[in-house]
Specification:
Blueprint lengths: L1 H31 L13 E3 L6 E3 L4 E3 L2 E3 L2 H6 L3
Antiparallel strand pairs: 1-2, 3-4
The structure holds zinc ion.
């Protein structure tokens, strides 16, 4: 009788341990998933210098009178 109680107790213990491990694995999987915004490649608009025709990102270009320039020098050269 005591032997059966020990066996049942052991089985319950094993089941509880397995549940705990399973839950920890699930949490680990959830943590590994969310990482998209940093890996996403950001494509910036490319614009063309009105004087020399070089392509450069819009954020680095100088906009004057609706025309883009690669630098202050070319903007002045175009008389804008
Ligand atoms: Zn230029």
């Amino acid at each position: 009788m005591v032997k059966w109680l020990l066996v049942i107790g052991l089985v319950v213990l094993v089941v509880l341990l397995m549940n705990k491990v399973g839950r920890q694995r699930a949490v680990g999987r959830q943590r590994a998933v969310p990482r998209q915004p940093e890996a996403e490649p950001k494509v910036e608009d490319m614009v063309r210098c009105h004087v020399c025709g070089v392509n450069l990102p819009r954020s680095e270009a100088i906009l004057s009178r609706g025309r883009f320039y690669c630098g202050e020098e070319h903007r002045r050269q175009d008389g804008a």
